[in-house]
Amino acid sequence: MTEDNNENVNEEGVRRRDFINVAAVSFAGVGGAAVLYPLITQMAPSADVLALASIEVDVSALEPGQAIKTIFRKQPLFIRNLTPEEIEEANAVDMASLREPQTLAERTAPGHENILVTMGVCTHLGCVPLGAAQGEIKGEFDGYFCPCHGSHYDTAGRIRKGPAPTNLEVPEIEFLSDTVIKVG
Amino acid sequence: MIRNLGILVGLFFTGVLLYSFLMGAYTYLTEEHVETAEHMFHEHPKSFSQPSDGVFGRFDKAQLQRGYGVYKEVCSACHSLEHVAFRDLQAIGYNEDEVKAIAASFQVPAVDPETGEATTRDGLPADKFPAVYPNDVAARAANNNAVPPDLSLMTKARHNGPAYVYSLLVGYQNPPKKLAEEFPDSMPGTGLHYNPYFPNLNLAMAPPITAEGQVSYADGTKATVDQMSKDVAAFLTWTAEPKMEKRKQTGLAVLAFLLIFTILAYLSYRNIWADKKH
Amino acid sequence: MSFPWASQYNPTHPAMKWIDERLPLPRLVYNAIGAGYPVPRNLNYFWNFGVLAGFALVVQIISGIILAMHYAPNALVAFDSTEHIMRDVNWGWMLRYMHANGASFFFIVIYIHIFRGLYFSSYKAPREMIWLLGMVIYLLAMATAFMGYVLPWGQMSFWGAKVITGLFSAIPLIGPTLQEWLLGGFAPDNAALNRFFSLHYLLPFVIAGVVILHVWALHIPGSSNPTGVEVKQESDTVPFHPYYTAKDGFGLGVYLVIFAAVMFFAPNFLGHADNYIAANPLSTPAHIVPEWYFWPFYAILRAFTFDFFFIEAKLLGVLAMFASILLLFFLPWLDRSPVRSGKYRPLFRPFFWVFVVVVLILGYCGGAPAEEPYVMISQLASAYYFAHFLIILPIISSIERPDPLPASITEAVLGKDGEEAPAAIDTTATTGDAAAQPAE
Asked: Is residue C413 within 8 Å of residue C42, measured between CB atoms?
């Protein structure tokens, strides 16, 4: 900036003053946007809910042919100890005939093909399928049967008949020991 | 009309108040002034400072872990910590496995899956510290008719809380001679202990921290009575507000932002008013 | 409803034009807080507090709606759910501290706003309705704040609820029944907590409604100003936007800095330690006090210690406490001085400042334990409180000889033969910095 160029100096001055107004308003805008962050994230699951996002289950007492129902993330979780016949039945299915082709091995942990852990939530509209408790109807394919709209799952928890679009969901599992499973 | 009525109402209230004042002043001047033992002997907490004090305060995790040790070995026999979950202990530097082990060392209420009867099981990280007594009646019965308060919020539930906790723990002493002479009724009764930092001077809690080395410190800090009292006061500062550190850090960022905004807003204000005299 | 020189809303963008023709909301905003609202040019910083109060109300409503998503209004779990917010909910600690301290800051702003009105007599004709609506807002805010303080269900919540509803039991004949009806029981419990929560959620929206009326009523005569002389000509005013939006923006910044400093670094300073102890109907805290913004009235309540003939002291205290607030509604008719601003009222000024000190003393005594000498001091101070409004103000207004008023706002700002500061001053400046210096 030179002294003899008064016009320019003045223009610069005006522009600088506008800049301050723009900066102040932009800062207010940024501040307002930053406030939105806690206002939005407060609705996400809180720490006590997240603390229950992963559970450990002891399956040492689970005999072949039995199943247990437990609660995982506030929803039913089925853990089933498959008999050799049930495993054979699951492995004998022609993959091409499946709605969502998955082998039993893909749906269980390696070395523990007999332990099938699935969500107890029908993939159709979220009802709880029957078949986990003793004496319940297991459906046409000896797995689970959802009474709401008649979805049949096989011994590997795969959808075989009815309106459900996909197999019963298998959560993330990890065997901490031979008998303790960490779910989630 | 309103003003005349107002003056009447005003005269009434003013008159009654001045009358009450004169009556009160007369009583105040003629009546003998009664001194109370609390007024004479109660002391304000000692000065106490810890790393989490101040605008830039941070928790000293090693100290909080020592403080947790004191709580676990001394306080937890009678005092619960019901708003704190075991998982929260990760914030003071315990790793996942240590938290699991700590949780498992507590028994929490459960339902027997076979019989449906009330039972207990090992604690899980997601559990909160269990209550020590099933209810207040049981707590009272076990403690000379005094309920040991929950400690989760203790340092926020007392004025100048951390200093209060520290002073109370190191403040047990023999009642002064003057107390026995002037206020024999205020001497500690059976099962009570004199402590000038407690509001009514005598409390049911026996001195909990009495001997050097009462709690074994893994980090080599010398476990003096003073040190243990400080550590547990620091731990209880954390339990009362685990988010304090985050609060202060957020606060600094927010303040810095707002200061810049305010300066900009001021410049903008001067700028807009530049050609307007006001 | 505005001055003839107010600039007219003239949308240039076709979309704004389209909206304005169908729903003139942009026009409403333009005329309310935009360039279409001419405001006296001489407002001082005390005139910032109306906008600040509105802002504080919005903060309370937003943070409150969010807290209600996590809070459980049940006596069994209310205290725990508050701690759940503080510990487990994402940013819950910040939202709760914002709400708790926001209430205090709302009252700080309201009190400064009210005292501004008292000093500059903003309640006088033609602005009586603005004052009355403001008083309604103040009453509603007090009720809302009281019920909000009950919600965490700590010791002070519980005992505050018990003591304040106990005021109603002083009313002869129907008192005890009325108290039971208010609480839905014989002491505060679930029924009371639930209805307090419901009303605490409702009332802020009622307040927001009355605020709209308050602002509407303000726009009929336009804002008052520190000289108390009405606007006479265009040179007396500046458009609200950008002049006062800029000034309010700066005021808001300062307010937020102080608010954030307290909220983040001393969040429990304005609260009470006992409220971190869960409610216990079997044990009263040693020293029950309401929140600080009620202290002056609490002092008046406790100042009545002697029966007056057949009227019990308890009833007198309750009557006086309600009277001390209700008399503010009659203020426009108690003070008949034709001059508004305290600046030109030599006799009124000292009494005003005595009144400010008296209210501060009452506040201090209200927060102190109910023992001597605080009771005697609050008796004298309460006596002055009533005398000030009901006796002194009416008398002053008839005997006072006010100082000469300026002929207009422009004259007050620029001097008798003042001209608008020539815009040429700016162009002579050599740098932008110098140009930004306003002529004071």
From this structure: yes
